[in-house]
Amino acid sequence: MILSMTGFGKAVKVFRNKKITAEIKSLNSKQVDLAVRLPQDFRAAELDLRSLVAQRLQRGKADLTVTAEVIDASSQTLLDIDRARSYKEQIERMSAELCIDPPADWYATLLRLPDVVRTDISDTEVDEAEIAAVTDVVNQAIDALTAFRTQEGARLQSFFEEKIAEIHSLYTRVEPYEQSRVEHIRARLIDNLGKLPAVDYDTNRLEQELIFYIEKLDITEEKIRLENHLKYFLETLHQPTYGQGKKLGFIAQELGREINTMGSKANQAELQQIVVMMKDQLEQIKEQVLNVL
Questions:
Q1: Own/partner pairs for 220-228, CB < 8 Å, 24+ apart?
Q2: Is residue 128 part of a domain?
Q3: Any alpha helices (H) in 78-127, and if so which ranges?
């Protein structure tokens, strides 16, 4: 079973007079890369939340957004004029320095900026219980994200199984060409040698050289390793634990190595066509394996 690194999760929880919402989305990345946006009141919990998300996601680029909306009708909505003034001055300075037009609608622009419009909740200070509620809703959002990633992982698993089966099917088409390929190479070399005028050569030595040359073009070892790598890919894909993405990527590289070697030794158009089709299937695997946790 595998998990995708791509997903989205959302959770909502009402605590006291607030509706706390957590949204998290993730994309593929080699390491953990987090962006966290929290209301000012919850900044003290940022490090703990970052640690929580990193531990549960393991890998991936993730964006976590937590918002808190006061639902108590008695709460007073205030405009922070000083903050709005500071935003306006900075935007005007940016406009002058970058030679761009200022906003056409200052009201709409300023009211959308953080903490310009706020609710007076001075009577409800954030305490440990509220921080615990925030942590709980973030955990629920991660649960939803994990469910999404599991579903996407199942789709990727079916995709990989299909592509590995395609490569194995192409692999079975190689064998019929091997004997004819050897005979064709031998006949071509002898024919070319016969075209040389008045050349006397040792037949036994010629046979030895032909055997040596043909052995260099033999792809038996590449076929054996390719089949072993295909089996190992499926075994890794079906492991009960998560986190196989990097290993699957390494196995895909080894598959590519054997397929490329077969192509360089093919020396026959039909066999080279099969190799090209194998490469096409493998490239699709490599592209999607980047999304596996």
A1: 222/258, 222/261, 222/262, 222/265, 223/171, 223/174, 223/262, 225/254, 225/258, 226/171, 226/255, 226/258, 226/259, 226/262, 227/168, 227/171
A2: no
A3: 81-98, 106-112
Domain contains 23: no
Domain carrying residue 92: 76-120
244 occurs within a structural domain: yes
* Tens digit of each residue's pLDDT, the chain (293 residues): 789 999 999 999 998 788 899 999 999 888 888 999 998 888 888 999 999 999 998 888 999 999 988 776 555 667 888 888 999 999 999 998 888 888 888 888 888 888 787 765 544 567 788 899 999 999 999 999 999 999 999 999 999 999 999 999 998 888 777 666 666 666 666 676 666 666 666 667 666 666 666 666 778 888 899 999 999 999 999 988 888 899 999 999 999 999 998 888 777 778 889 999 999 999 999 999 999 98
285 token code pair: 């695997």
- Residue 158 within any structural domain of the chain: yes
Domain count along the chain: 2
Whole-model pTM?
0.70
**Which of 144, 250, 149, 264 is CA-nearest to residue 216?**
264
154 in the same domain as 105: no
